[in-house]
Amino acid sequence: MDFGYGSGVDGVFKFISNAEVMAVFFPKFGQSIVVDVRPKEGITPLVRVVPMARSIADRLRTIKRMRPDLPRPQDIIAVPWVGYVEAMKTSGLWGKIVSRIEETGYADALEAADRAFEELTRMERRELAQLIMGDQYETLWARPTK
Predict the structure, then answer these.
(1) How many CA atoms lie less than 13 Å away from 123 in the CB half-sphere?
(2) Nearest Cα to 100, choosing from 122, 84, 92?
(3) How far apart are CA 93 and CA 110, in angstroms?
(4) What tens digit of pLDDT does each residue of 119-134 get?
(5) Spatial distance between the Cα atoms of 114 and 27, rounded to a whole number of angstroms
(6) Burial level of 95, CB count in 10 A (0-12/13-18/19+)?
(7) Cα 32 from Cα 54, distance rounded (Å)
(8) Among residues 29, 45, 47, 49, which one has the least CA distance to residue 37?
(9) What's the pTM?
(10) Residue 49 is inside which H or E element, if any?
(11) Considering all CA atoms of the chain, what is the largest pairwise distance in Å, rounded to the nearest integer?
(12) Are 50 and 29 in contact (CB under 8 A)?
């Protein structure tokens, strides 16, 4: 399975293995998970679900506001995820992100990652339910009725 990345998903994995700041964003329901594992004594890695940013520059500013004791990140890995949230696990992407968090040695960051994944799953389910029920969606084209 290529999860919409062709053979490029392995390239995404390589970037994540070295990334200190990363964001996976979900255009289908307008949310992102932001992970910042930059080391600093006494500062726990950041793992948080936040609204999708309009640009990378916006995301970098947001991270600086969330982590004022750290310098503004020099770079960020941003991964658009168009598949289901659960597919991050089957693709191996979530495992790579969790491995990166594990390397920090902060157990509470791993717990935050679990909570964030559950939150993303709930948000996705809510969005799918709204789609099925017609809430917040309008039909653009409908078959004429007789």
Answers:
(1) 20
(2) 92
(3) 15
(4) 999 999 988 777 776 6
(5) 21
(6) middle
(7) 11
(8) 45
(9) 0.82
(10) strand 46-51
(11) 70
(12) no
